[in-house]
């Protein structure tokens, strides 16, 4: 048995939590269809995850917690709010943003709005290339 010093343990926990949260967003970005109820379940699942984490570790605040919560909540944004949100949240990949727009199609964003938002994503991504 090798004892891990608390500062090292905290760093390991922080990296594991950050990776888990990034993986959750990537998983949410792979969803092909999702209803409002489905997004609500994602929020509940994430809250359960956070409750379990808080019992396992003393790391506070939870790394990248807002990264996941913000992505889930973006589903509910209107067309104009989503366009503004995408410009403000450069931390999400083009794929994650594109999927968010595509999943919203039909629920509260029409095809014309979808095209506009996808063009906005392309404009945001252009400087990166």
UniProtKB/TrEMBL annotation:
Entry GO terms, CC: cytosol; EARP complex
Pfam families documented for this protein: Syndetin_C (PF10474)
GO biological process, one term: retrograde transport, endosome to Golgi
GO molecular function: SNARE binding
Syndetin C-terminal domain ranges (all copies): 3-122
InterPro entries: Syndetin_C, VPS50
Domain of life: Eukaryota
UniProt name for this protein: VPS50 protein
